[in-house]
Structures are given as C-alpha cells and as structure tokens.
Design brief:
Blueprint lengths: L1 E3 L5 E5 L4 E5 L5 E6 L4 E7 L5 E7 L4 E7 L7 E4 L7 E6 L5 E5 L9 E6 L6 E8 L2 E6 L5 E6 L4 E7 L5 E11 L5 E6 L5 E5 L4 E5 L5 E6 L13 E4 L5 E7 L7 E7 L7
C-alpha cells in the first residue's frame, strides 16, 4: 500500500524485504520500520499522527495490525497475532475507528471478511463476512459507502452504511466482476471515484461513485509482459496525481513507482 503523509512524503511497503519506506518529494528514500517475520501490506494514518500497518505471514497464517510513531519508533500491537486475523488493508473513518480486511480463504472457501475496530480499539465487529481473500478497502469521501475487493473471487463490493457497522437495507451489492487476475488495493479520490489496482494486469481500473467503469491507467510495457504485478496506489491530496507501485517479478525490471494524471485529487 502507498499513502501520503502531511508533509507530502510518499510511504509504501516492500513485502519482500518486510520494510516500510518513506520517499520525499526530492526522491530521498529512508526506512521507517522493518518487521522480523510479518510482511507489511496496508498503511493508514490515525488522527493522532501514528502510522498503522497491516502485516501478515502467509507461511503460517498469522497477521497483525501495529501502530508506530512517524519515525518508526514505539511499535505497539493494535490487533495482535493471537487474535487470529490476516489483516491485509485498513482505512480509518472520521470517528477514529478503522475497517480492515481479513485475507483468509480462497476462491472456493470464503473464510475472510471485513471488520471494524472501534475508536478506542476495545472491540472488533464483523461488517461483511464470508469473503474469499478480502483485500482492498476504501471509504467514500462522506464515509457512507465502503468499498471492498475480493482477491479470491474477483469481486468489487459496494456497501452503503447507516452507521459504522450497520449496512443499509438493500445496501450491499457486487458493483463489478473483474476478468483475469485479481483486484488488489484501492483508493477513493475527493470526487468519490474509485481506483483499483489489478494484480497481474499492469493497470488500474477507475470507477465512478456508483461502481461504473469510467477509465483506466495502463502501466508502461505491460503489452510486452512487464510491470504486471501492480498491487497498490495512492493519489496526491493536493493535485490529481496517481502513484502506482508494481513489480516485474522475475522478468528483470525490478519494482517501480509510476505516476499518472487522474480524475481528481486524493482524500486528505
């Protein structure tokens, strides 16, 4: 996952090295924190300034959500491995609670879901159960629509909420069924449009606030089989610039962050 801090730095995860990095506007790269075993994948800032990180280890099906200070110090378990979740991604609401995806299951075993941690982090409630490898998660600008991708079944869910954990009557539906390899992380822009990174396709698909496709961002050299492992993205809150992180796998071009113009600015 990628995310901007208040200083305009871009933060992102390196799953392979178990690190979270900070990239300044003048392209200076530093390490914020390194995990011993878990692999970081999701990032979100709490209103108190701490960075929350979702991390998992699929080799033994463990995961956690931790919080660190902006400099990486003071790591604290918010959701400990003993809780039994595989947190893939997370997003805060305006109350200070957060939604997170549980990456359990596969295409024929829907063991994952979406959960909500209360603002004081004392309770966790299920919002949408029975998902196959729940992955990306995003909130609309007004906080009333929750978006979720199912990596295992290629689905995009649009959920209309009456409160933090209650779904409106007829308020949940599948807005889109993806073709090919799977939907990964996503972000909303300030206009309510949704941007979904497609892992294995080297592109980002863009939807309007109702889940209708309105555009896409194609990564360079995807037509030649390069830069296909696009997993995550961020949108600048000051200009309509999209940043996409991708890997070339074993094809020789390494990992890259690409930039493109999109329909709107990111959420603060």
């Amino acid at each position: 996952m990628l995310i901007f801090d208040k200083q305009g730095n871009l933060l992102f995860c390196d799953v392979s090295s178990r690190k979270v990095y900070r990239l300044t506007p003048d392209k200076k790269l530093t390490t914020i924190t390194t995990f011993d075993k878990l692999r970081p994948g999701g990032l979100a800032f709490h209103k108190d300034g701490r960075l929350f990180i979702a991390a998992i280890d699929l080799s033994d099906n463990t995961g956690a959500i931790v919080a660190v200070n902006p400099d990486g110090s003071g790591m604290q378990n918010i959701i400990a491995p003993e809780a039994g979740y595989l947190p893939n991604d997370l997003v805060f609401d305006d109350r200070g609670g957060f939604y997170f995806t549980d990456f359990k299951g596969n295409s024929t075993q829907a063991k994952g879901g979406v959960y909500y941690a209360s603002p004081d982090f004392s309770s966790i409630k299920v919002v949408l159960p029975n998902l196959a490898m729940a992955n990306g998660i995003a909130l609309s600008p007004n906080g009333k629509e929750l978006w979720v991708t199912e990596f295992g079944r290629n689905l995009l869910h649009r959920i209309s909420l009456t409160d933090a954990t209650t779904i409106n009557t007829i308020g949940t539906g599948i807005a889109y069924h993806f073709i090919g390899t799977a939907p990964d992380s996503m972000r909303s822009d300030a206009n309510g449009n949704l941007y979904v990174a497609l892992y294995g396709q080297g592109r980002v698909l863009v939807f309007n606030p109702f889940g209708i496709p309105i555009g896409q961002v194609l990564l360079p050299e995807r037509e030649h089989g390069h830069n296909l492992l696009s997993t995550s993205l961020a949108i600048s809150p000051t200009v309509n610039d999209l940043y996409v992180v991708t890997s070339d796998g074993d094809k020789g071009k390494g990992a890259t962050v690409f930039q493109a113009k999109v329909f709107g600015k990111g959420l603060p």
